[in-house]
Specification:
Largest sheet: 7 strands, mixed
Helix content: under 10%
Number of strands: 11
Number of helices: 0
Radius of gyration: 14 Å
Shape: globular
Length: about 120
């Protein structure tokens, strides 16, 4: 059974940092593509960052470049999202997403973790 469990969200002041974690289980992590998406209230879900676990190559949405960093720990089947210089507009539910089998297999979602940026 595929599971994606996010953690690390919370309330942070503008300019602060958070690190989100997503622990994956039930599939072959090293052949997956792992993504972070987010959804703000009243808005559509949007892409944040991607890492191809097998190669380590990363992709970011333009608005996150330079502030967010995606990484993975293959030994822990975990993907991270380091978020720095957070802004109020970063407030959203952040979701972990897995594309299996080098992106050719099914896609799964985690339950999400809330990030709130406010003073």
């Amino acid at each position: 059974q595929v599971q994606l469990v996010e953690s690390g969200g919370g309330l942070v002041q503008p300019g602060g940092s958070l690190r989100l974690s997503c622990v994956a289980s039930g599939f072959t992590f090293v052949t997956s593509i792992m993504n972070w998406y987010r959804q703000a209230p009243g808005k559509e879900r949007e892409f944040v960052a991607r890492i191809r676990v097998f190669s380590g190559t990363t992709t970011y949405a333009d608005s996150m470049k330079g502030r967010f960093t995606i990484s993975r720990d293959n030994a822990k089947n975990t993907v991270y999202l380091q978020m720095n210089n957070l802004k109020p507009e970063d407030t959203a539910i952040y979701y972990c997403n897995a594309q299996l089998a080098y992106g050719t297999g099914p896609t799964y979602w985690g339950q999400g973790t809330q990030v709130t940026v406010s003073s």
